[in-house]
Write a structure and sequence with these properties.
Blueprint: H1 5-19, H2 23-28, H3 32-43, H4 45-62, H5 67-78, H6 84-96, E1 98-99, H7 104-110, E2 119-120, H8 123-128, H9 130-134
Antiparallel strand pairs: 1-2
Helix pairs in contact: 1-4, 1-6, 3-4, 4-5
């Protein structure tokens, strides 16, 4: 899928505020393009473009940092009947690598997609889930931590 270049930045900014991770950490997962495509494929180009534009407008009005930005994201995106379910799926996608089917009420109002099913996006998405970093563990049967790593204490709180 050919991406509209302006869309990646607001998607990445929105993802950073929703997950609590820095943009560089999200980029480091290698999943930005895949997750961007996932959202666009499920909710459609028009709805995703509207979400990215809303995010860009919030950033333009309030900057990327601070309480004003977070409040605007909560009020205009998370509390929105249209954008809230998408934003919550973006959070879950980053943390677990899973896309959850949007609520039926959302689908009734905004349409359905054959891609809107609850599923693990890919084995890579599972392995790169932010949950593993948060709990300081590795995804079972995917990334091995190294020989005798069990004998070392966790390095401490990263977040």
């Amino acid at each position: 899928m050919k991406k509209e270049q302006y869309s990646i930045e607001p998607f990445l900014d929105l993802s950073a505020i929703l997950t609590g991770f820095e943009r560089v950490d999200l980029l480091g997962t290698g999943m930005v393009d895949i997750y961007y495509d996932e959202v666009v494929n499920v909710v459609g180009k028009a709805t995703s473009r509207e979400l990215w534009e809303t995010t860009a407008q919030i950033i333009e009005r309030s900057g990327k940092d601070g309480r004003k930005f977070e409040t605007a994201i909560r009020r205009e995106i998370l509390a929105s009947a249209k954008f809230g379910p998408i934003a919550r799926n973006i959070i879950q996608m980053w943390y677990t690598g899973i896309w959850n089917e949007l609520p039926q009420s959302w689908r009734d109002l905004y349409g359905t997609s054959p891609d809107d099913t609850t599923r693990i996006i890919s084995s890579e998405a599972y392995q790169q889930g932010l949950v593993w970093e948060v709990i300081e563990a590795h995804p079972p049967a995917a990334k091995q931590p190294g020989f005798a790593s069990w004998s070392y204490r966790p390095s401490g709180d990263k977040h």
